[in-house]
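Ticket #4471: complex job returned nothing on first submit. Input attached below:
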Amino acid sequence: MQNTDLSFHRTALALRSAMPGWTWVAPLVAVVIFVSGVIGVLIYLRSHEAEQRQETLYKDIELVQQSVRLRLAAVQENMLTLARDIAAGEMTEESVWGDTASLLKDQPFILAVAWLETGNTSHWVRPALGTSSEIIDIATRRVEDRETSHTFDRVIETGRPAWSAPFFGTDGLMYIELQVPVGTSRKKQGTFLALMSLDKMLTHLVSQTVLQQYRVTFIDQSSTVLTNLSARAALDNKTSYQVPLDPPGGGLSLRATMYRTKSPLFENMLLAMVIGLSLLIVWSLWTQWRHTKKRSVAERALLNEATFRRAMEDSLSTGMRVLDMKGRITYVNRAFCDMLGLSQNDLLGKTAPFPYWPKDDLKTHQHMLDLLLAGKAPQAGLQVIVEHSNGKRFPVRMYVSPLITESGLQTGWMTSMTDITEPNRIRDELAAAQKRFLAVLEQLDSAVSVRAFVNTEGAQNKKHPFTETSQSELLFANKTYVELFGPGLEGHWLLAHNSQIAAAGSYEVFYEPSHAWFEVRERDIDWVDGRIVRLQVATDVTSRHEAQEMSRNQQEKVQLTSRLITMGEMASSLAHELNQPLTAISNYSAGVLSRVKTGMVDPVVLLPALEKTTEQAHRAGDIIRRIREFVKRSEPNRQSTDVRQIVEDAVGFAEIEAKRSNVKICTVMPEQIEAIYVDKILIEQVLLNLLKNAAEAMRDISLPVTERRVLLKVNDSSQEVEFCVIDRGIGVSAQDKPKLFEPFFSTKTAGMGMGLNICRTIIEFHQGRLWVNDNPSGGAIFCFTLPR
Amino acid sequence: MSTDKYLIYVVDDDEAVRDSLAWLLEGIGHRVQVFENAENFLARCDLNAVAVLILDIRMPGMTGLELQEVLAAKGSTLPIIFITGHGDVPMAVKAMKLGAADFIEKPFNEMILRDLVSKMLEIAKKTKEEEREKLRNQALIKKLTDRQRQVLERIIAGRLNKQIADDLTISIKTVESHRASIMHKLKVNTVAELMRIVLPK
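Support reply: We reran it on our side without changes. The output follows.
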């Protein structure tokens, strides 16, 4: 299994790496070489053919040259003969014309003949048959013509026949003249002239086959084309040849240019086939490539799937085994092998007894196997003991299902095997834990009870399990509960919080029948059967209650004492403070008296003084009221109190003390502070104490006037209000700090050592905190918080 | 004495006390100027005026005692009456030792205050008078020449004309002539009067 897997993997890898690389270059290169070879052959064939054509052209045009020369030489000979006849005067005009006519007939390109006498006068003209009068006209007028007279002069001078240069006729065609001398060199009588058309010369002297194949033209010295017989434009300029003609000479040449022939059909078809074939090959290569790509994708997916399945199989903690119909093992998975400490080879192909059967219990196993093969294995599985290869035995549970192929044929049995050692152990431990838990509950001093509600329909209402219509049922009660309240629900009911929803935290209840206080906690919990039930834990706190009551009474006494002590300590300051308004009152009255005595009784003068006197009396009264309120014995009385009021009152008092120490009190607090729920007088006392201490601490410290101040900072947050008293005084030494809040500890000579201790008690009574820090710029910072 | 319009300075931080004191003193015919702290007083008072200072001993900022020290350092002869509270007697004693005129405890007895103020004004007037006379004498002495001053020194030392002449190696006649011109310049007739002018009290 492992081996096949590996090779499969390797093949896939090889496929994947080879597929897109150079494999595709070879066929492409082959195609390119093939196409370029074919194109090379075609080019070679074409050039060979062109060479052959050129060869043919040379031959043809030389033949033409030959024949033209011969004919023109013949014409010249004829003309000389005729000229001699004329000169001999043996012939009449009539007889000359007879000979001439035959010449004209034999040589149709001669348009006319004429005898030109010396002195440049035309003697007579004989046009060829069908020659237009215009041509004749040309022939007769030639005497005056420059070309004719030039030739005439040349012939007379040399006494030899001469050819004129080609010239245009009035009809736009090219013509040429031949003049031969008449008479002897002693007696020059004139010339005999033949007018020839170059066009006609071509048509009559060049064979039709040549004319069809080539464009044949006369050209002069400057390569000007003199004749143009063909209207066909397509010329193959590469296949062209020209030869000089003599006679007539004078630079006249004959040029032949081959007409462009249509490419042969066969050659074109060959080219098209080659191109088509190449495209076909490229296309087939492309499709092949695409196909391979698709295949490689599919292969990769397959590989992934196989790896996934393999991993899944390996990760299973359940052992899998397949038996064929005869009871032979045909497959086991890794978990199965691991579970038993055996390799696949130890198991595959084996029949009963299997190696993992305990040697002393073969019978049971054989029986189970028989059951299994008979298809009678129980649905809930078989529990058996198996043996690990190291000899350790453990319980397993086996489930069996038939292995059926697609065609519905059963090929064997699939067995799954699970090690149930751990679940068994957990179950045992849970049972033990349950037992211990119950034992603890029974031993608890608190009464624990659980009640459930079954409403009249018998169905559980999850949202409101404790509706009025529901009936209660005591699900659990521990020993203490039974001892205290008896086995019924009554105790639970009496202690229960009067609410549909379980109360948060604990509350205390006075239980009439036994005159005891109980601290009760209730919580809704999920019961073992999924119902929501209410758990109640009641602890007897009667003794704690009594202790608390006692301590509270003491506390109150201590607080009162503390207030009296504070007042005592402040007596001197208060006296001074009271002295101020009293002095003012006394002064005003004395002033009024002395004025009245001297007779100054103007009410306008006296009234303001009397008003001020009243004001000062009120001021004194206020001070007295504050002292009385402060010292007045009162129960702790928490009520919603304005923070600003507390601060104003405390600062008002403290300022008296501060003045004595030459210190100012500055207050920093938010504009708006929500009221807090405290005992106003107690908190004022704490604040006054701290401010007073702060001022006293600064008494003997020398500081600039602007820094002689105690800062009271009030911070407000959603959870609490924080008060900080910041001074620049002597500070608190590190060794005093831990003792600072202990009773009877004081750094002051006159102090009782109760102030800070009581302050902390008061703040803690309000669930707040009181602490001290060092002021970084010298002095101390006392802070306390009051929760909202 | 109550008809004399002399200046009374009152320095106290408590507005009511300050105001009522002014009211009381004005009622008995004094001119009163009030200050709420020592700094203001120092900035605005006239130390040359004939006046009495009624000063609160305990104030924020500069205290009464500190102000007293400052005034002494400035050479002021202003008589000071300290206002003290109930427990401030030891402090007042300290102030007296430093040369304060007197102190008065709150609340004030009008009669005591009135007498005290009058008494102090007297002292103030007398002190001023003496000061003025001293200045006048000093001015006179300044008019003497150096030689006359040397002679004067020796007269005051109780030396005879002859001895003076020996000391200064001049003739007795010259000493007598100096003596006459000294008497003339200092506008005195007897040696006793001369002594009073020259020797400070």
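DSSP finds nine helices and five strands in chain B. Closing as resolved unless it happens again.
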